[in-house]
Specification:
Layout lengths: L2 H16 L10 H7 L5 E2 L5 H4 L7 H14 L16 H7 L3 E2 L2
Parallel strand pairs: 1-2
Length: 102
């Protein structure tokens, strides 16, 4: 082994054990969203951020939902969410167990 190789092995041996296991690792939004994946979302009171917790709902669609609710009043039933442009069958099926109206 060359001197450079030995030096590299020594450096790794010294540095790695002193580093915390999670050094430099930050949680991603996907991890946060997945953790909150089972909670119910009241579409009559949820703000944009809360609506974005639904699978497939990004900021733009969440804003459309809030705008629709502001213009048309509260949703009477959960299926009324499908009246919002951009909420299709696939999105509804992914989230229907989590969407509530209170």
């Amino acid at each position: 082994m060359s001197h450079l190789g030995v030096l590299l092995v020594l450096l790794v041996t010294i540095v790695l054990p002193s580093m915390p296991a999670d050094a430099g690792v930050t949680p991603t939004p996907a991890v946060t969203v997945a953790a909150a994946g089972g909670e119910k979302v009241n579409i009559n009171t949820a703000d944009v951020k809360a609506l974005m917790r639904l699978a497939g709902v990004g900021r733009g669609l969440a804003e459309k939902i809030v705008q629709y609710r502001d213009a048309n009043g509260p949703f009477k039933k959960a299926t009324d969410l499908r009246k919002v442009e951009g909420v299709g069958d696939a999105l509804w099926e992914k989230n229907r167990e989590r969407i509530v109206v209170k």
